[in-house]
Amino acid sequence: MQAQTALITGSTSGIGLGIAEALAASGRAVALNGRSDTPENHALASAMSARHGVAVVYLAADISEGDLARALVARAADALGRLDILVNNAGVQHVAPVEEFPVAKWDHILALNLSSAFHTSAAAIPLMKANGFGRIINVSSAHGLTASPYKSAYVSAKHGLVGLTKTVALEMAETRLDLTCNAICPGYVLTPLVENQIADQMKVHKMSREEVLEKVMLQRQPTRKMASVEDLGALAVFLASPAASQITGAALPVDGGWTAL
Predict the structure, then answer these.
(1) What is the per-residue pLDDT across 236-251, written as a single tens digit (0 to 9) for each?
(2) I need a surface site. Which of 31, 38, 142, 181 has the fewest CB within 10 A?
(3) Where are the chain's structural domains?
(4) Is 154 considered catalytic here?
(5) Which of 58, 150, 154, 188 is an active site residue?
(6) Is the domain defined by 5-187+228-255 classed in CATH 3.40.50.720?
(7) pLDDT in tens, 187-204
(8) Which of 104, 123, 164, 122 lies closest to 140 in space, CA to CA?
(9) CA dihedral defined by 165, 132, 50, 60, rounded to 10 degrees?
(10) pLDDT tens profile 47-100
């Protein structure tokens, strides 16, 4: 059987890169994606390929545009020879009250966080049906299951992504093929971006790192611990495996109990 392949959107850093790393380490060929096309992006792919002995390519695309999102899927399948796993991870955030929320920000967040997953999934499903195997993994959020103030676009998009996951799962199940669609719903995850947020909060609140984590950032996360990108990568590898063939339409929290409250 030909080695499986995976496309991970928004995978030059953070959660997306962690999932890509885990899939490559498990023997899958990988297509990384980001908006810019720089030597550093291609070097990232080359280094991952060397570490794990699998094919890794970098494909630039602004997937907030639907036609470019669909074209990315075709390019990934062409570059890797097939497409078995699609991880919809790309996303962006903006914080503001609803009455002050910039319309352009709302439109962009919905386009990148939600509509891009619709377009990539629509393009990938026929390829997966032809292979008789497919895994779509959507990176939603604890905010796909609950809400916070001032994050109207992000919360709406992530809730929508959970709904899209369930719908796609039901449609894929009707094929009676080995096709699944699930969502991962992280709480706080320790990424370089979050590290910067911790430093900012330490300055604003004049607190130590430990105090910021305990009293500010992880107040809603009962374990008071962040997940790691390795945690999410391991879950993605499991969801892509034969052992997860009967898990579909699920929204799986990785949030330290946040959504159990």
Answers:
(1) 999 999 999 999 999 9
(2) 38
(3) 5-187+228-255, 188-225
(4) yes
(5) 154
(6) yes
(7) 999 999 899 999 999 999
(8) 164
(9) -50
(10) 999 999 999 999 999 999 999 999 999 999 999 999 999 999 999 999 999 999
